[in-house]
Structures are given as C-alpha cells and as structure tokens.
Queue: 3 jobs
Job 1
Amino acid sequence: MAKTKFKGGLAYSTNKDLLQDNYEDELNVIELKEQRLKIVLDTKQRAGKVVTIVEGFKGAGIEELGKKLKHHCGTGGAVKDGLIIIQGDNREKIFLFLLKLGYSNTRKS
C-alpha cells in the first residue's frame, strides 16, 4: 500500500502505476543565492536572554538549515513561524556559515 499524491486527484490507492513521477513542479525550490536572509539579535520577551534570529527564508528546507546552524554554533534553538532562532549572540558565526553554504544574499543587522 502506498500513501502519496496520485494522478487524478486520488488520495489513496494500492495501484503503484498511478504514482506521480514528477514532484519537482510541486516543490517551491529557490536557489541559495536568491534567498534574502537577515540575521538579527533579539532580547524581546525572552527575560533578557539574547537570541540570534535568521529571517526571510523561503521554500522548503528551513528545518534542515536550522538544525545545521544549531549544530555549527553548538547551542540550542528552534524553528518557528518561518524564523530560525539560535540561543546566544552568534551573528558572526551564522553569517560566515551561511556564506560558506552559498547564501550570498545574507546580511547582518
């Protein structure tokens, strides 16, 4: 039994011949250098604790990027509402890491 998107608007089928082969059209793929990311420092509503926020990410893959950034900075964080939140002041580390990954349209504030 296969659960996936099928041709013809079907939601479920055991017929594997109905599977769609082309998922590229459905994905919102944006090139890395076209992403306009902004790195900001924030302390609002955080009991005075500092966090670094990466905003402006569009498309799929924000969870994966958040995981990579947390690992690179060696700290905790979260991905919420289209924002990547990293604990501490890691603006410079994140900026250099994003440039290394290919996000050339990134800026710090």
Job 2
Amino acid sequence: MTVTFSAYSSKLQRVLADADWSAVEMLAQAMLTCWQAKRQIFLCGNGGSAGNAIHLANDFLYGIAKKSGAGMRATALAANPAVLTCLANDVGYDAIFSEQLAVHAQAGDILIALSGSGNSPNIVRAIEQAKAMGVTSCAVLGYSGGTCKNIADIAIHFPVDDMQIAEDMQLIVGHMLMQWLYAHRPQG
C-alpha cells in the first residue's frame, strides 16, 4: 500500500472530526485548578511521546502565561537523561517515571501520560503511582487505549491504529489546553 500525503491528511481529519472532546475539557478544568493552587503538572511518555511531553512542559511553563513567573509548574519526567539512566539501571526501565513521581509529586498534582498503545509498563506504573499518591492521572492514548484507558482518572482516547497520528493528537490536545489555559489565565 502506498501512503500518500492526502491519505494521511484525511485520516487525521477523520480522527479530529470523530473525537469526543469532553475529557479534554475535564483535563483543562483540572489543570486550571492545579495552576491556581500552585500545584505541579508532570508529563511522561516514551520515544516521540517523550519528545511531546518535553515540548508541552515548555508550553505549560511559559506559553500559557507569557509573563515571567506566572506559568504553571510543569516537569517532563523524560527530560533528565542522568535520572532516567540511573533509574533504568538500578531499578528497571518500568520504574523510570514512577520513581520520580514518588519523590516529586504530591496530592493535588496532575500526571499527563502520553502513550500510543497505553500498555507501556513504565506508563502504567506511573499512573498507578500517581493514583496511590492522590495525583490526578490523565492519559492521552491511541490504538485501543490499552491498560491506561481503564486506570487513568481522565482518559483521552483516539482509537486510531497509527502511531504518528496518535502522537499528532498528543500535541493537538496539548496545544488546545495551552490556548484554553492562556484564555483563562489568572489575572494579576
């Protein structure tokens, strides 16, 4: 099968047209409450999803306020290679995010997990760790949604069997949240 640019564009348009945005609205409200309470947002993902998590942490830290010191406290758990390699070596790759949450997170914070499949052991463990600590867990998922669809407090699921479109949707959701939060940013 030959993949064409118009076929990719059409598939992405179908996913967007068929999406239920109610879970994104729930996450937006939770993030606004978190921001107003000066709580933290943690993001995690593997591969391209890790890159998306790092990108979105930047958007939430600065882009939602565009004013020094007024953004959201946002951390991408994949951003520190020394921590990742230490944890992967000492306790196992499946604990690279959950171990960081155990140290940094507190009840009232939010975890946003980005995963194509929703079945990566380190993503599943991160959500389980978040839930154990009273951290609201959200997962942005593709394919069937996997285990994460069933265990996340807020599951944003796009049932598409295409990793690139699943990763596109992670950034689209993140940018929707960024613009919504900017429009609702605390004044002062």
Job 3
Amino acid sequence: MVLAKPQTFMNRSGLAVSRFLDFFSMSHKDLLVIHDEIDLEFGIIKIKEKGGDGGHKGIRSIIDAVGSDDFIRLRMGIGRPGHKGDVSGFVLSSFTKEDRQSLDKIIQAAREAILTILCKGAKEGMNRYNKKNVLNSSE
C-alpha cells in the first residue's frame, strides 16, 4: 500500500494520480480515492466501487486522466451549505468549532473503512459503512 496526497488543486488531481499509478506500475483498479462529498450529510461515509463523477471536479479529473471510472472511492460527507449559491467557498472553508469536535470520530471510522477495503474488499466495506452516520453510531 502506498499513500499519496497530491499537491495539486483537487480539480486537477488527475495528472498527479495518473503519474502516481505509472510510477508504481499500478492499475486504476488498484486505486482508492478518499474525497469530500457535498451530497452526503456531515458524518456519513460511503464507499463506491466505480461510477461517474457526481459533479465532483476532482473525481472528473481523475477519470479523465486514468481513462476509467473503475476505481474505489471513499466519499466523506461534508453536507451542503445553508444557501443555494456557489458552494466553492463552503467546500474550501474551515470546519466549524462544532464540526472540528467530531473529526476524530469521523477520521477513525474512515480509517476502519479503509482497512476493511484493503483486507476484506470493497463490498464488505460497503456492507459495514455505507450511509451510516458515524457520529450517531455506538460502534
């Protein structure tokens, strides 16, 4: 396993991911992308094996660069802002004080989901974690 954090803007991460895969002689099918998801409530994580970009420009960049949508994603819910305007300011802003207090629990659940994916596969991860609000879970 190799962990990478591209230093590019998220919307342009495809090139970094493509070069990463080439450098390590890996296939896009070996890829696990962890990203924010505005369409999921804060505290919800969801694993997805493949599919479209759902409007996420970073995922679109990766799909375009690797030539496939066949890679695993761990989508981490950040929720939507309380307004209908441009969401980029919301996505790029700092967490609220209340949300920061929840981050340890969310990160721990994401870590466990990643280990499940790596050790037991994406389907097992989906069965255990999809759509579960980790902030309301006693696990």
